[in-house]
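Data availability (excerpt). The following record was deposited with the supplementary files.
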Amino acid sequence: MFHSTPHYKTITALDYHQMICLVCSDFPRNLIIETVKTLPIASSAGKDPEISQRVGHDLLFEQYLLEILQGAICIYFYFNEFMENIRMLF
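Predicted structure:
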């Protein structure tokens, strides 16, 4: 949906989660929150990358570059089970 137009360069994490919920209604919101904790916000794209100082659900309202957000969520979703097992071990 967002690939078809050049107008969507940035998006909030909440909007992205809502878009995913159109396909998978029970997609975990916490997975989005955990992913965006490490992403730079879109307003810092031209200068030094800046990670948001917000915590918890407030991170969902930050703007992120769409390409970076999509890639990060795909990677985090793919390796989520592995990361959970590692957390239990260490």
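Summary of structural features: Residues 40 and 51 are 5 Å apart (CA to CA).
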